[in-house]
Every structure is written in structure tokens, then in C-alpha cells.
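Sample pair:
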Amino acid sequence: MTCLKTRRASFLIILATEPVNKMNLLIRTTIISVIATASNANATNINQFINTRSCDQVIDKKFYKICYDYKAKGAKFVAYTLKGKNVGAVNIKKRPSFYPEKSIPSRYRTYPNDYTHNEFKADRGHLAPDAAFDWSKDSLDSVYSMANIIPQYRSINRHTWIKAERYARSIAIKLGEVTVINGVEYGSQRMKKSGIAYPKGYWKMLCNDAKGFKRCLYYKNSKTIKTKGDKLKDHVVDCSTLT
């Protein structure tokens, strides 16, 4: 699961019409090796975001992975590959209850009632969305882990971020599959009751290497953002700016 950057290196390739000798063979082999190395260097792998160096804890939910930040009491990154064949395949109507992620040490764990009557009037916002995982009971249950939840301002969660989620599903259908990496940018504010860090914004990276597709979207998490007339293109950003 990788997302290739758009930059490509240029190489001078010796044509196969030249006489084959050991020197030419060595040069061709070296060029192929360099091209392969450059391609790998330009790949943005999920493991670049979700690893034990960047994360206090890596949580494998089977259907997606979480990079968890103890200080923020929330996810830094959530990543998965969305298969087009699963989108809308079943569409389970009954939604599960939110539950604490027991693999996280209790002092860094969050709970569903942490969001009740919070001062930000924030929703429990999914990073791996339920509508992308409602094709089986197990996959749907997995996204209701509180480790997958961040505070999202209501109008952003319900009117703008949801468009990015729909877009990801449409790309999965169109291309067959899409790798999705969600990132969170935390600010200095915290929810008083729980100590959960309140995000300044969050982003979504969508890519399919085989089809040469890559697109990134960024959303500010602020009540001052006007949602009326909001368009997906308003949130498109250069993927190289996201870390």
C-alpha cells in the first residue's frame, strides 16, 4: 500500500541495439537498479506515517491501522485501503455503540462520554468512516473504537468532511481501490473534562499508484468556517505539504 509522488527522475538509457557485452550489460543493470531505487524513494508508504517511531502506539484494527498519540489522547494518523467492491455492498443500517480501546493504557484512553456536553460542541468524528466499513459487522464494529474518534466541529463533520468521505468512496468505485491516509493537526486547546487535544485541522490523502492517482484535502476544524456553498475543490492541497 503506497502512494507514489508525482516527481519522476530522468535517465539516459543505452539502447538495446548496441552490441551486447559485459560493460553494456553492467550499465543496463545499474540503470534499472537506479530507476527502481528512485521509484521506491518517491513512494509514500503507509508505514511512513504509521510506525513505532512516529506513534506512541500502533493499533491494528484488522481493517485499518491507527497511529496513536498519548499526549493528544487521540490518533495522529489512520490508514486503510478501501475496496470499490465493498462500497455499498451490504450497507448495514444499525450502527454499533462507541467503545473504549482497551489496548491503550487507561490514562491515555478516551471514552464515549468524554464528548457529552463538551464546551466545543464537538461531534465524535470518525477518521475511518462508518460508511466505508459497513459491509460486514466486524468491519463496522471496528470503526466505533474511540481510538478512531477525534473532536470535530459539528458543521464540519456533518457538512464538509463528509464530502471528502463520499469522494473517497467514489474514487474506490472508479479505480477499484484507493489507499486512504488521514492525518490530524492538533492545537494547544484541550477539552476540559477529558484532556483530549482539540484539532486545528485534519487532512485526507487518497492514492492509487497503479492508476497514477493522488489527491489531498485539508479541512480546518473551526466554528468560524462557513459551510454554505462549500466545495470539495476548496480543500485540495499539495500533498507534499502534509506530514
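The domain at 46-241 is CATH 3.40.570.10 (Extracellular Endonuclease; Chain A).
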